[in-house]
Protein 1
Amino acid sequence: MDDAELLRRLVDGDERAFIEVVQRYHDTLVRVARYYVKSEASAEDVAQETWIAVLRGIERFEGRSSFKTWLLRIVVNRARSTGVKEHRVVPTDPLASERSVSPGRFDQGGAWIEPPVPFTEKIDDGIVSGPIVKLVRDSIARLPEPGRAVVTLRDVEGLSTAEVAELLDLTEANVRVILHRSRARIRTEVETTMQVDRS
Amino acid sequence: MRLTASRLVCQQAVELASDYLEGSLSRRDRRRLEKHLADCDACTTYFEQLRLTIAASGAVTPDELSPEVLDTLTDLFRKFHEDE
């Protein structure tokens, strides 16, 4: 069922539609909220408040933006004001000075000494195998903020870079840098796990 | 002939990877990068791996919600409709 159909049923007060929307988005709401607030518990509270706001506001939702964008705006606004109340300082990018690949893997001229070994898994008609998806999911969960929020919105939820920038109040250039470092970190973690598995 | 300074080395190429895949490189950088990739299997592998991890992120599905969270949210939904 797509979001539009779920939405129609949600407006009608269909409990199963609500559960389905919650299953689909609750995790993402908690993750995005976590960028602004001090703890997992606080992020969970913000996500729950968001669902109440959704139930209250659903009839007024005009469909000018997608449901997903509307939902994410609500959670960001709530998380931001909760974060302010908690005196939480939104973290700056701790990966900012990290290289995509450890400098030790290149010679002085910048050529690979220890080149990447191709993953055994390949993208098959755009479908990625389960084990890699699981590795990547765990790796995203371990990313430091703001990388985790940015990758969740851009690569998991498929928002555009511009939408992520607007939502998180970052510049697009900033989002691109954060994405770059975070994706490189994820690749390295997958590579490391695969090497361990191979040996 | 181009100056050697304009030739990319592998260590520079990997730093352009994400912007390249986002389509946000300048034309000049894109051309330099594509030239490098055409001759470099190791960097081509690197780019392939990055593409794969991005595709894998897109295939991530949400974790099953814990029964506690599900109960809390179901209660919340029922209370909301009782109060209406």
Protein 2
Amino acid sequence: MAKAPSLISLRLRSIASILLLIAIWEIAGRAKLAPPILLPPFSVVAAQLWQSAADASLFVDLAISLMRAFAGLALAGVIGILLGMSMAHSRAANWLVDPIVALAFPSPKIAFLPVFVLWFGIESTSKILLVAFACVFPVIIGTYSAARAVSRIYFWSAASLGTGERRMLWKITLPACLPRVFATLRIALPVALITTFTAEMVAGGGGMGATLVYSQRFFESPTVFAYILVMLGIGLVLDAAMTALQRRWLIWAE
Amino acid sequence: MRPERTIAGAAGDAAWRVAPLVMLVALWQAASAAGLLNPAFAPSPRAIALALLDLLTGGEIGRNLLITLFRSFTGLALGAVAGIWLGLMMARSRVFNAYVAPIVGGTYSLPKSALIPLFALWFGIGSTTAICAVFLACLLPMVVNTAHGVTTTPRVLTWSAHALGTRERKMLTRIYLRHALPDIFTGLRIALGFSFVLAISSEMIASTSGIGKLVFMYGENGTYDYMFAAIVCIVIVAFLADRALLAIRRQALRWHESAAEGS
Amino acid sequence: MPPKIEIRGVSKTYVTGRGGVQALRGTNLKLDAGEFVSIVGPSGCGKSTLLYIVGGFLEADGDVLVEGRRVSGPGTERGVVFQEYALFPWLTVRGNIVYGLDEKAMAGAERDAIVARLIALIGLEGFEDRFPRELSGGMKQRVAIARTLACDPSILLLDEPLGALDAQTREIMQDELLRIWVDTRKTVLMVTHDVNEAVYLSNRICVMSARPGQIVEEFTVNLDRNKTREEIFLSDAFNKVRNEVWLSVRRQALAAAKADAP
């Protein structure tokens, strides 16, 4: 059996393949394998990225998009956790909400964008609500199954230590669910970002997605590529941030 | 042994489960009829139903829906095949994994719909753009889940197979892929959802056909009852597709332990 | 004076898809204040179920009376310690122990004093701010006991409290339990599958039959607990009782096996 590669050599190979990709990109762009409109060299894209950062247009767009994504995610989090826990505790709540979740979960929420635009206009409100709509269902489902999985001996211990029936939800169910709920939110984060960007691409109203589509329509391909790279980077950074947060806040979780 | 389930019993269960939705629609209709809702912003369920009927009989929805489904399923099929193959390779070869994993992992953070304008730049407005977007979106869940299913194959299974004379080529299909099947189905379910999202996003951003475009168009024109009707259609189709996949999974995974519990 | 705990004709049937499973049938038991009673029996005989019913967590037919009053739910006068510890993982050691005191809305100074005393009792000074996941099994069990003692219940219900511990830690914890009982003279009802443990700790042992469970035999234990563990375990008195109890449990286990056999 071949010797397993060491961790460092694996890391190096990872970095190597990314650098390789960038190199191929640059060479292909410079060699004009495709018209520069379709494939600008990496260096040109990087220059455009720098430019957009310098005149702050990138940061304005980013701020708008991120604000919408986070607001929507937070809203989805609060509503989703409340609904998920209620469904776990109350059969009536479960009966009422379950079919809605079952129906809405597989459907592409972006299809509802025109409805939100109709009701709330093309500015941030409609996008935040659409993001919340898209993210709430995984949160409900995740919270519900986490709440159901809370061991009865926690409830029993709390009861024999004097906790009343009413307070069980807050004192026991909620903290016990927290690790899994947080993991669900982590998964919902990319959904929030995708929904925000797509909504902006379809309906305009500022933000990364709007600029992206705008650049495409005017064939400003370096900007198109630059913005895609930024979206990629943001996704990575935010995911890492959430992992770090999880480690700090939920230090007690196994 | 499970208690016998009669058709009537099952129908009764289904009716009970659907009841809240029926209630909500009834409430909506009552509010519309009472004039509580502005028909411009919220058409009554009745108006939507009539619009839906009109679209169905006129063939509008049928035609566009087929285009959308073609785009979704083509991208899904391509993505699934490629994803399963990639996942298998990544799980079996650490070297391959080392080179490919960062690229695959990187795409996790990238919203695939962001690539739609890029593809529109490259391929123009139409099905190719949509299929590419769907393909890329479906790739990741298939790769990740297949890889997970393959890497968790218990050693005792592979050792037994080796001892019984299975050759390396056959190992892949007879042992690893079979073991990964439940995970593959999990990935498929996620990918199915993505395929609809990307197809419809594509149509809304850069297309002249498809049901996503239809919804967008009706919205622009102000014919909101038709817009809602098209959305209802999308929701139903997505729901049915998901159920169909679950039914296929139940059949394909009859041998799996979880099937015994009657899930 | 009524017995501290009285269990009268308690029966419990679990409803399952295939009809019902009767866990307990007409169980009767009385405990006087300050007694340490163990329930032993073959696996699955329903001894834990009986404990949960006394704790007020499960409903059953029949009566459970505490100081003459019917039990209708959990209560702080009946402290429980579970085999799996049931420590709240999101609270520190201190947070867990203080839990019941917070529920009583106890004043700060009094509360802190009790917590300090208990932490000293279980010997975990310096660990107050640790989370349960950082503790060993024995430490977790000690915190679980301290948490229960904080509310000063007059009754302790122990469900195989030492079952998840390794043999050495078990022995240490047994002596701890004994010491706590001697100091506080609480009424203890313990479920265990370890006959040695039952004889070592209790002054009365009840043997339960196989499912559906009933108390079929009782043994009184009169050991001089001032002796050391070694002296006790090696003494004739201990071994005589131990053998009798073991035999009784074995008889029940064999009867269960025969009943299950096709």
